[in-house]
């Protein structure tokens, strides 16, 4: 073995030993064999046995495989996949991780309908989900990426990490999972108690319940009949978070989610970022249901999953509109006592007087429009929002009306709504307007975000996103909102406030964020530790101990997610804060071993090397990164900054000139390009670069730089116009008080 490879493995092993010193939480109860559940719960078990949950993952047999493995084939972009049987087993012949065609045995089915995927094994204990899937209704093979040409080198190829069952799918398609990834060998030794989502996947380990059931005639009954939590509808947050753990896009913090414990103790869900959601909060990317549901009025009023869905079959409790009219009717709601129905109007909603259509209309067509994922899987938007076609153009978001009336535009739909309900119908300000203005850097952006972040009537998930985005719009009012949110009862808002305060009020952050190192929620503690890492030497001894405890929690989360490069990236600054520069470097290098084209890993490692005076090593790393990612402007920027530090400004200018037209170029690209042009005495060209960029973007630094160069050129009128544009976006911006 070469010495360098041996040293790299040794350093990884040393780092893993550090992580392994963090004890994992003990299980409260033991998992049991569920064969005996039917003795007391026969109806529930029969109902569950036929559900999507129960059959989320199954061994591949003639009874479970729905796809046609008859020797037929599917071709896309020159890639041929053939499906056949051999000795009663199921196989595919397709291109493998090295691009060569060979046979792979199908070990498991994945999903039931409307599509079914198939899992095959690769070395290292990996199970991979094929991206050629079976359309159950259409009875055909199809590609999950029909509009993309994908070969074995592409990150979307079935053999690559995004399609890895162990890391991406197993926790929610099996019960009692232990991923067991070894970062030294890069192998998985994954185990699970059962395939599919079984009784204990939702209720938690049943050892205590079984003991109670066997001896329940004597002694005092334990809480929740021996289970760790009560999932009944009256315990709204417990049930919502138990379901939400798998029905949300999130990062995990622990090896498993113990039912009944706060979600933010074991996971960090994605909020409502651009790209994942439309500006008005409608689902866009594959984000599942929880984020949408947490925007809904029904969630705010106490409604829970099992009010609409049978807990065991997963099916809705009534068909069609009858599910909605159980509560939305002229007589009165049939909701349980846990739901606040005050303010619910009693009228006939399932009638033309409400929906204004001559033919019957489904409630969900208007209030929960579908968006299809994985080609054939339409999913309802669980925010159950009121259609706002009047805002579609402003927010660049779809609306339910035009999803059906595709030959019309939003203005037509908005005019129809005005005819039906009057011009003042739904005229209230919507958070989609704030997000659209902020993401487009339009006039009123800062005020809109402040309005939403400070409105206690808005859903917490919405307010948290407003706080996150407010960090880019500095000012006293924004800082006050962020500081106040550090004490908010909702954990997501406290996390968003930590991020915002670090940007908006860095002096106050050192003092005000410290108490959150002892927050009740693990996710909050970890984010507080990340925010305070640069200021660790300034912390009092007691706070330093709290910081170290939170860092250990972050390390435990990284150990559990050591197969994700993002985990090692997140660990590096925590290690660096305690002076472990070598550990920080090895963490970043491990991220790049997992994904050599990981953009954030390349840039962060180069920056760490620079801070250690290793400028030539940083340059070599960035140049290698550009070979892998030639279209990433951020790599051009990072390399250009390194060249500037080496006084190689002409080389840096040439690099940024090439980066300027890239699709990934940002306002920062234009800012650096202009700065180098101005430094070279080409101020008019610098102004032109900034003016061109400003036509598309209103980024703060870009506008400030443009105003500065305009003033230096003697064009005070143009400079004032530029600064007025910034003032329209954020009148509180402190830079407006010290104009160039």
Automatic annotation (TrEMBL):
Record Pfam families: Cytochrome_C554 (PF13435), Paired_CXXCH_1 (PF09699), TPR_19 (PF14559)
Protein name according to UniProt: Tetratricopeptide repeat protein
Domain Cytochrome c-552/4: start-end pairs: 163-204
SMART domains linked: TPR
Residue span, Doubled CXXCH motif domain: 305-330
Placement of TPR repeats on the sequence: 565-598
Coiled-coil spans in chain: none
Species for this entry: Zoogloea dura
Domain of life of the source: Bacteria
PROSITE patterns per the UniProt record, alphabetical: TPR
Residues in the signal sequence: 1-26
InterPro entries linked to this entry: ARM-like, Cyt_c-552/4, Multihaem_cyt_sf, Multiheme_Cytochr_ET, Paired_CXXCH_1, TPR-like_helical_dom_sf, TPR_rpt
Gene3D superfamilies the UniProt entry points to: Flavocytochrome C3, Chain A (1.10.1130.10), Leucine-rich Repeat Variant (1.25.10.10), Tetratricopeptide repeat domain (1.25.40.10)
Ranges that cross the membrane: none
UniProt keyword annotations, A-Z: Signal, TPR repeat
């Amino acid at each position: 073995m070469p010495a360098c490879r041996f040293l790299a493995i040794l350093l990884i092993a040393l780092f893993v030993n550090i992580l392994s010193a963090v004890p994992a939480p003990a299980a409260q109860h033991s998992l049991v064999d569920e064969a005996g559940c039917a003795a007391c719960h026969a109806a529930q078990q029969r109902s569950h046995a036929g559900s999507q949950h129960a059959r989320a993952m199954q061994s591949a047999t003639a009874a479970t495989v729905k796809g046609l493995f008859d020797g037929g084939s599917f071709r896309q972009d020159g890639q041929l996949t053939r499906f056949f049987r051999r000795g009663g087993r199921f196989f595919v012949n397709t291109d493998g991780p090295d691009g060569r065609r060979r046979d792979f045995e199908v070990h498991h089915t994945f999903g039931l309908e409307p599509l079914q995927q198939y899992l095959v094994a690769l070395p290292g204990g990996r199970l991979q989900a094929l991206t050629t899937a079976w359309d159950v209704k259409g009875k055909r093979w199809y590609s999950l990426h029909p509009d993309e040409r994908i070969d074995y080198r592409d990150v979307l190829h079935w053999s690559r990490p995004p399609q890895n069952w162990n890391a991406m799918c197993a926790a929610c398609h099996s019960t009692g999972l232990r991923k067991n990834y070894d970062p030294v060998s890069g192998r998985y030794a994954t185990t699970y108690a059962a395939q599919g989502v079984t009784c204990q996947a939702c209720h938690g380990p049943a050892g205590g319940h079984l003991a109670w059931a066997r001896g329940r005639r004597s002694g005092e009954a334990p809480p929740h009949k021996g289970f760790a939590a009560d999932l009944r509808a009256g315990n709204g947050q417990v049930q919502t978070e138990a379901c939400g753990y798998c029905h949300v896009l999130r990062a995990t913090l622990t090896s498993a989610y113990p039912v009944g414990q706060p979600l933010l103790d074991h996971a960090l869900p994605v909020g409502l970022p651009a790209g994942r959601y439309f500006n008005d909060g409608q689902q866009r990317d594959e984000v599942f249901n929880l984020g949408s549901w947490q925007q809904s009025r029904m969630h705010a009023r106490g409604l829970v999953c099992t009010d609409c869905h049978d807990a065991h079959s997963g099916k809705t409790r009534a068909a069609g509109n009858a599910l909605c009219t159980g509560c939305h009717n002229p007589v009165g709601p049939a909701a349980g006592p846990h739901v606040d129905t005050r303010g619910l109007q009693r009228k006939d909603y399932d009638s033309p007087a409400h929906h204004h259509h001559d033919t019957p209309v489904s409630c969900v067509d208007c209030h929960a429009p579908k968006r299809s994922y994985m080609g054939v899987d339409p999913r309802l938007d669980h925010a159950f929002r009121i259609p706002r076609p009047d805002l579609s153009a402003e927010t660049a978001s779809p609306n339910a009306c035009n999803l059906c009336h595709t030959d019309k535009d939003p203005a037509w739909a908005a005019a129809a709504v005005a005819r039906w309900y009057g011009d003042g119908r739904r005229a209230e300000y919507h958070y989609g307007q704030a997000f659209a203005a902020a993401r487009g850097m339009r006039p009123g952006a800062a005020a809109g975000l402040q309005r939403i972040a400070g409105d206690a009537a808005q859903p917490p998930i919405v307010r948290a996103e407003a706080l996150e985005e407010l960090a880019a719009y500095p000012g006293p009012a924004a800082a006050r909102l962020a500081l106040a949110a550090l004490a908010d009862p909702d954990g997501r808002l406290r996390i968003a406030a930590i991020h915002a305060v670090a940007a908006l009020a860095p002096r106050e952050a050192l003092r005000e964020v410290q108490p959150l190192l002892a927050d009740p929620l693990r996710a909050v503690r970890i984010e507080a530790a990340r925010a305070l890492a640069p200021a660790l030497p300034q912390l009092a001894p007691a706070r330093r101990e709290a910081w170290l405890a939170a860092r250990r929690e972050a390390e435990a989360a990284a150990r559990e997610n050591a197969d994700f490069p993002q985990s090692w990236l997140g660990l590096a600054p925590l290690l660096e804060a305690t002076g472990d520069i070598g550990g920080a470097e090895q963490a970043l290098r491990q991220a790049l071993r997992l994904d050599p084209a990981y953009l954030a890993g390349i840039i962060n490692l180069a920056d760490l090397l620079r801070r250690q005076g290793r400028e030539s090593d940083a340059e070599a790393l960035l140049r290698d990164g550009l070979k892998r990612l030639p279209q990433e402007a951020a790599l051009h920027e990072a390399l250009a900054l390194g060249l500037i530090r080496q006084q190689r400004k002409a080389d840096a200018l040439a690099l940024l000139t090439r980066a300027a037209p890239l699709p990934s170029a940002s306002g920062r690209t234009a800012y650096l390009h202009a700065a180098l042009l101005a430094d070279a005495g080409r101020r008019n060209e610098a102004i032109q670069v900034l003016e061109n960029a400003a036509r598309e973007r209103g980024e703060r630094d870009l506008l400030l730089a443009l105003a500065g160069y305009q003033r230096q050129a003697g064009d005070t009128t143009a400079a004032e116009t530029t600064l007025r544009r910034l003032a329209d976006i954020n009148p509180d911006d402190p830079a407006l008080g010290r104009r160039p």
